[in-house]
Amino acid sequence: MANSRRRVNSRSESYNRQMYIEGSAVRKLNTQPEREQPARKKQRKVSRTTQKNRAKATQMSSGYVVFLTVTSVITLFLCVYFVQLKAQLTTQTQSIAKQESALSTLKADNDALYNAVVASVDLEHVKDVATNELGMKYPSEEQIIQFDTAGSSYVRQYQDVPGMK
Fold this sequence. Notes:
By secondary structure, the protein is mostly helical. The chain is built from 4 helices and no strands.
């Protein structure tokens, strides 16, 4: 008999274990809605000193009100000052952008005019006028003096050049 009871118990336990499902979607069988607990009708009496302490705790002192007012006013002024600085920065940024745009336009115009001037100069005409009308001549070998330059493309003259008159 004892063995048969064990078998029945073991079978029913294994059957119950197989049927157990976990998760939030599991249907709950035989559930009853929870009922609200009725409010307590009997309230405890609060002592007079406790009532005074609670009243004091809920009131603000005049010093605290003054402190809050001062900090609020300071915060308001700082916010207004920040907004003014932000507006000034935006205005300056826009002004700088306009000036940079104008500068790039002027540089482009200047380059175009320079190229037009360089293209309009006839070097042959300049050479002809210099040699025929002004009497200029090419230098002779004796007049040419060569100097070594140390890395720069030109020489500055701080003294008289030897051999020149």
